């Protein structure tokens, strides 16, 4: 004889979409092989301890009933009330387990018959066990949220459905700092809660239902971009088209993906459009401007910041309309200056540039024939050279420097003096034209004048001197090749 142990149910949820049913049955193998596991699985515990007497040979014919449950004959009882009590036991246990008002199928039929002892369900507990062994489709007195005539989510009570809708609305009406709701959230759709019997397996938890209504889908699948991925690859490999990928990621430019970017593969399409108008107060900077002034102590072309700019601040009040958390409109209702900006002040230099530094080496300033090196007066001691050529012959700066004279200079006629900034200066006399002016920087080899015969001169020639701290230098020390009658060129 078999001695039954305390045993429970192994639940198995067959998910087949909305038609899924919950089947509850006892698995004998679990009971026999691992008692501790089945004890853990006691969900709807129905203690059954049936001891069959060894003297069962005393056979008594008794009037009773065959029981048909959901069209299936599942045993016999002496009293119909025993079976109905068993059904109540199962319903109560399931209702307690699922915390819901479970409804079981009520298709029960009894047929009078002589009781056969081996098929007798001796007690309500035995009936319960037999009921639990059948495939039970549980339903509950629940509530369905219907949006625009579409059944969107089933909850186990009207109250839960109400809480779900409140949560959806509340999540869009959440306020940030310095935000105030100025009008109640408006829902664009028709929606209602319908109370009706719902298969248990179709129920959603409140959290699930809120998420589902807000996302329009059960799960937002994300994908992390790998090196070499294109948006096309990502879309095609996952059976979606690129437009859907774009729609699901409106915050990103999917034409320039970088490894590590996270893309949503499903689009959020909330069932409810919740529009909320919030008044926001926020500050915005007022950018400073830059003003300029001149400064004679700063070289031309350079500038210095006199004082830094400081951005101002304005406080803005705006009415912002959000639809499903996304800003769709903004109306600025007030702007108030909190702090003035301070202009940045920049000084631009006007000071002439310092003389270009000479190299200390001198170039022959023109071409022509040497007519004098050492003669009485200004040439005494080889302290100048005369080079003759036609009027207008180009004269070039012998070294870099700054022009300190470009004007009539008594016997020199029109003359230019260049200060080379290293103690040296050079003088060019008897010019017919001058191309530079005082203060101008010139570089070695730059054309500065045309040859002429102005001042104390008997014919077109250049009188050229090199001076050191103002003193005329022996010219042949710098141009050792000079010979009267010799030809020179730059
Ligand atoms: Zn001379």
TrEMBL record:
UniProt cross-references to SMART domains, sorted A to Z: G5 (SM01208), LysM (SM00257)
Protein known as: M23 family metallopeptidase
Keyword Disulfide bond: no
Signal peptide: none
Organism: Alkalibacter rhizosphaerae
InterPro entries linked to this entry: Cell_wall_metabolism_enzyme, Dup_hybrid_motif, G5_dom, LysM, LysM_dom_sf, M23ase_b-sheet_dom
This protein's UniProt keywords: Signal
Any one GO molecular-function label of the UniProt entry: metalloendopeptidase activity
G5 domain location: 272-352
Residues covered by the LysM domain: 221-265
Cited Pfam families: G5, LysM, Peptidase_M23
